């Protein structure tokens, strides 16, 4: 999941195709200008390479129209040989049409849809994202393509370290990043470059990132956690239980959440999912003193929903481990009792019933036998 | 003799009513309980959905549980009445003889005995089932109480009792349902459909087959003990208030069972406030602010050495438009200020155009570089299509020399 998401992001940057040949298979290396009338980058840079050129926007802000040619050449688009007009097709004519944006942000919001020319699938995915919904709702600060990927200096995700992902999100969500950085996941990524831990996009998705405050996301979230935590290969090096999902789902909380998720995904429930007990961005190891689910803190966590709970109550939860004789002997032996008792009782009943059926069939045949021969003699 | 086949009363109306209540509540409990136990199964989810969701399913389960508890209290009354007031025989009590009868019935079925055992009013199969119901209901009530009131339970008992109660509750349910499906279905419906629980009666041939000893007792007039009506009335006067008191206590117990505790909050837990949008910079990805003057490191930018370059320019060599200036201006300026009047009406691709200038005035004033707009714009250093310092120096030298064609 981690790698898939990363690859999906990387895909954005490494598969450009020219706008005019969008239907053709992309062949970036041998790229020819789609239109012979296209201006070469040099012609654009003749003007735009000079630094410090600006257009004053109605908002009073200055729009920088200079391009750092070297940065573009080093960008993934520059390396693939894209030309300025691929992204700025409206600027083929000189003089250019006047800028209509009211502000710098307005300009970005007007222009970012150029990405859709080549990256239509990624763009379509963003249309369902929380960022797009915010943008459509009039929030110009909502992130668009270039906010995360950059514009002239766009890089491939594959080129950067994984830590670049949360650092990208940090630009807008710094408070959450700070919490993440202190968590077991974020700490492992930022300090140890651990390849197993999730970055932002592994849980939230990439282009179609959803708002985590919806009930649907809340109810679905255990599946996200289970994606890694139920994976024996991934968990082997950490010695963690992979039975997290089935132990959760077989419990009262999990059963409710499972059924709500299946039957009424938008229904609000106060039954907890993983993050409600373990924490979200600030999630800690279960043996960390800061953990919300370490023995010492568990009662406080339970009391968020069970205010009258007392010291024994948290032990009613067996902690994601199937009952065994050491940790949950009572539950274990109740189970063992019924594993023996049910087959013995039901098996005994079946044997008795089958024998009874056998006897009755036999009796009926015996009764019918003499009857038939008597009737035959009579006729 | 009576022409009509003789019928024998087996279950009175209250008994049959009890059975109906038991049958209904048990079925509802089994369905609403098992779909929760096997919540991942598609069939369970269909049922839960049809019942109106898991919360509704749990409510139905709880209501059926209360009905079953009330029925149990009623049953305690009818049984006690029979035992203490009417002094009926305790022929429902299982004993060693029932084990023996079961064993000989089994041997008969296998063909190892010539005759099946003779049964009285209640067969060993019926007694086994009755005590399974009594035992099962008690166990379900106790474990159900724990699951319904986990906070109160763990006030006195270790926390592990709750999952243990849940395990027992679930397995006991499976046991009960399987027993009903196998034992009850076979003995009462398949083997011979015994309608007495609904009609109240058994026919003579049924009595002969299933309860021959009872039939013999009835025929001998021994089935019912003779009761002195006065003694019965006296015992009833004692029994009724005692049972009433017990029943009130038990009903209070049921009420407590249901209302014992408020296990969890009924609202959503207090939300944790997280500042979602906390940008590091004022806007998420600011366009880099332009610098007013070009940075010294940029090679194409003109610098302050412009004046020095001008003085060093060799004045002896004649600089001409055609040979020197047009090759500089054509590529750098011609894109915007092209033939036919480019931006600002200026055409820098022809000698005449340069002299004619644009809307701001003539671009070139021969002999006076400072008055030439071309030089003014380029010296400011922020014009698109910026000339290098050497190129600009040559332009200035050309203007100083009178801007020859």
What's this, in brief?
Chain A has 379 residues and is mostly helical. Chain A is built from 20 helices and two strands.
Describe this structure in words.
The complex is a heterodimer of chains A (379) and B (405). With 379 residues, chain A is mostly helical. Chain A contains 20 helices and 2 strands. The longest helix of chain A has 50 residues. With 405 residues, chain B is mainly alpha-helical. Chain B has 2 domains: 253 residues, Fumarate Reductase Cytochrome B subunit (Up-down Bundle), CATH 1.20.950.20; 95 residues, no CATH class. In chain B, helix 3 runs antiparallel to helix 11, helix 5 runs antiparallel to helix 7 and helix 13 packs across helix 16. Chain B starts with 6 loop residues before the first strand and ends in a 5-residue tail after the last helix. At the A-B interface, helix 2, strand 2, helix 6, helix 11 and helix 17 of A face helix 2, helix 4, helix 6 and helix 7 of B.
Largest sheet of chain B: 2 strands, antiparallel
Could you tell me the strand content of chain B as a percent range? under 5%
Number of domains of chain B: 2
The oligomeric status of these chains comes to heterodimer
Instruction: Please give the largest β-sheet of chain A.
Output: 2 strands, antiparallel
Distance between the termini of chain B: 150 Å
Q: What's the total number of strands of chain B?
A: 2
The run of helices and strands of chain A is: HHEEHHHHHHHHHHHHHHHHHH
Sheet-strand content of chain A, in percent, reads: under 5%
Helix/sheet category of chain A: mainly alpha
Report the uncertain regions of chain B.
Answer: 290-315
Summary tags:
heterodimer, A: 379 residues, mainly alpha, two-stranded antiparallel ribbon, 2 strands, 51% helix, elongated, disordered N terminus, B: 405 residues, Fumarate Reductase Cytochrome B subunit
């Amino acid at each position: 999941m981690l790698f898939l998401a990363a690859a999906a992001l990387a895909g954005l940057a490494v598969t450009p195709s020219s706008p005019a040949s969008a239907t053709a298979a992309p062949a970036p290396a041998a790229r020819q200008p789609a239109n012979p009338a296209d201006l070469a980058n040099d012609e654009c840079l003749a003007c735009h390479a000079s630094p410090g050129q600006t257009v004053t926007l109605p908002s009073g802000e200055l729009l920088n129209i200079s391009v750092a040619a070297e940065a573009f050449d080093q960008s993934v688009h520059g390396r693939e040989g894209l030309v300025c007009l691929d992204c700025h097709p409206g600027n083929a004519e000189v003089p250019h049409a006047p800028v209509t944006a009211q502000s710098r942000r307005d300009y970005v919001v007007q222009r970012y849809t150029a990405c859709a020319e080549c990256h239509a699938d990624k763009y379509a995915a963003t249309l369902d994202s929380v960022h797009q919904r915010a943008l459509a709702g009039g929030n110009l600060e909502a992130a668009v393509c270039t906010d995360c990927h950059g514009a002239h200096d766009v890089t491939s995700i594959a080129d950067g370290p994984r830590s670049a992902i949360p650092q990208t999100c940090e630009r807008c969500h710094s408070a959450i990043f700070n919490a993440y950085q202190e968590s077991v996941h974020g700490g492992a990524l930022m300090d140890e470059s651990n390849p197993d831990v999730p970055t932002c996009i592994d849980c939230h998705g990439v282009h179609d990132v959803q708002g985590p405050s919806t009930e649907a996301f809340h109810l679905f979230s255990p599946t996200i956690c289970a994606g890694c935590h139920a994976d024996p290969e991934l968990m082997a090096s950490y010695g963690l239980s992979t039975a997290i999902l089935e132990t959760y789902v077989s419990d009262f909380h999990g059963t409710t959440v499972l059924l709500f998720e299946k039957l009424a995904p938008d229904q609000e429930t106060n039954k907890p999912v993983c993050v409600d007990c373990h924490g979200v961005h600030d999630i800690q190891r279960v043996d960390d003193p800061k953990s919300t689910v370490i023995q010492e803190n568990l009662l406080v966590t339970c009391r968020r929903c069970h205010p009258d709970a007392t010291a024994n109550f948290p032990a009613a939860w067996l902690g994601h481990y199937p009952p065994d004789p050491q940790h949950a002997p009572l539950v274990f032996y109740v189970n063992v009792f019924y594993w023996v008792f049910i087959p013995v009782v039901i098996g005994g009943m079946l044997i008795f019933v089958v024998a009874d059926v056998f006897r009755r069939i036999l009796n009926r045949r015996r009764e019918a036998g003499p009857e038939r021969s008597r009737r035959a003699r009579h006729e | 003799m009576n022409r009509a086949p003789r019928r024998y009363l087996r279950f009175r109306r209250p008994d049959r009513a009890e059975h109906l209540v038991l049958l209904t509540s048990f079925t509802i409990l089994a369905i609403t309980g098992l779909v929760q136990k096997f919540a991942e199964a598609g069939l369970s989810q269909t049922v839960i959905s049809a019942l109106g969701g898991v919360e509704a399913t749990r409510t139905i389960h709880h209501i059926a549980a209360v009905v079953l508890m009330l029925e149990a209290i009623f049953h305690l009354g009818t049984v006690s009445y029979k035992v203490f007031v009417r002094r009926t025989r305790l022929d429902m009590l299982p004993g060693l003889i029932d084990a023996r009868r079961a064993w000989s019935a089994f041997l008969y079925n296998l063909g190892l005995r010539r005759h099946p055992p003779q049964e009285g009013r209640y067969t060993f199969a019926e007694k086994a089932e009755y005590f399974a119901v009594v035992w099962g209901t008690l166990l379900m009530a106790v474990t159900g109480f724990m699951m319904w009131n986990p906070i109160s339970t763990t006030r006195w008992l270790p926390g592990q009792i709750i999952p243990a109660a849940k395990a027992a509750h679930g397995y006991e349910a499976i046991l009960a349902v399987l027993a009903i499906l196998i034992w009850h279905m076979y003995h009462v419906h398949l083997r011979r459909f015994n309608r007495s629980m609904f009609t109240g009666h058994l026919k003579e041939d049924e009595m002969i087959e299933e309860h021959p000893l009872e039939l013999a007792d009835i025929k001998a007039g021994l089935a019912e003990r003779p009761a002195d009506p006065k003694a019965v009335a006296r015992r009833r006067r004692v029994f009724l208030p005692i049972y009433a008191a017990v029943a009130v206590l038990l009903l209070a117990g049921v009420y407590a069972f249901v209302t014992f505790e408020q296990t969890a909050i009924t609202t959503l837990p207090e939300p944790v406030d997280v500042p979602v949008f906390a940008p590091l910079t004022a806007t998420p990805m600011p366009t880099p602010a332009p610098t007013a003057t070009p940075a010294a490191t940029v090679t194409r930018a003109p610098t302050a050495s412009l004046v020095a370059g001008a003085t060093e320019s060799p004045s002896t060599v004649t600089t001409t438009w055609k040979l020197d200036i047009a090759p500089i201006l054509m590529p750098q300026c011609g894109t915007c200020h092209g033939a036919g009047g480019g931006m600002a009406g200026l055409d820098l691709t022809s000698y005449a155009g340069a002299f004619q200038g644009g809307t701001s005035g003539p671009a070139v004033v021969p002999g006076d570089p400072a008055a030439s707009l071309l030089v003014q714009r380029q010296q400011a250093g922020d014009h698109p299509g910026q000339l290098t310092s050497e190129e600009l120096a040559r332009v200035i030298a050309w203007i100083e020399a009178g801007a020859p064609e």
